Amino acid sequence: MDVDGGSTSAVGTEVPSNAIYLFKQQRLPACRPVLTPAWVVTTFFLVGAIFIPVGLFSLHASQNVVEIVNRYDAECIPGSFKSNKVAYIKDSSITKNCTLFLKVPKPMKAPINIYYQLDNYYQNHRRYIKSKGDQQLLHGLKYNHTSSCKPEDVSNGLPVVPCGLIAWSLFNDTYSFSRGTDELKVNKKNIAWKSDRDHKFGKDVYPFNFQNGTLIGGGKLDPNIPLSDQEDLIVWMRIAALPSFRKLYGRIEEDLDVDDVIVVKVSNNYNTYSFGGKKKLVLSTSSWLGGKNDFLGMAYLSVGTSAIFISLVFLLLHVKNPSPYEDANYLPWNWKGLSSWRW
Asked: Which of 334 and 12 is assigned the larger pLDDT?
């Protein structure tokens, strides 16, 4: 410290640059939009003018989707087993074939997606989600660290491929379709995501020792087909976030006419009766927005109408009580004395 005439000055202390000082004091030049009543009313009105047409288009696209939904888990139980459905589904000696008749309400253009829908089925349970071996699905028996798959990691002293509860509980109801005397072929190619087929399931990984234990879960897999080609398994192993979900079963590549009667032969194998679940068969066309879903269109319409309503309210308030502070000269940062302020 140097003392000169009773004053002190710090040696080596740098005076902050003007830009840093202005930044710290929040005095840098900036865009300060003036939200006048005219700007606010116009902004809300434009939001409404954009959102309402988008909502109408989205709702129209959803309404054009033709969808047939049929719940069959109760319908496919014989009368003598209505009081004991669990015993029926667990008895392997009983044939579980069932026939459904679906009437087409409107013309359905190909491709027609076939979904199975499960309700009250919590695939998002933490223990269930963790019960798989991602590296094993990709590398097969070369990967031995499958402790996350317990208790479905080993069967009869041998490893299980694919391991875990997700694969073990594979959905195994099957459907066949016909119209009159003509069979409707189901295309089951490319029903799974391409990224899953190419990067999550090995092309040289084959099922091994699968569903060979004393407790059988869901469907079985062909040991001669690699996992990357078993698309029913790939679709099933993409976990659903909600307890009610649909998964793609296949596609019908033919148009269906109004009042056509589709005969569906169902193999009712999958056990949802133990936990009060429901099974539904869904036939649906698609639009540029996907399947039938009114929520997006209704959401756009709700936001758009709300914005229009708010703009009208603000306009009426402004007309009734005009404010002199609409003039930007009244804003504090435009006052002449602002330059002497310190924050």
From this structure: 334
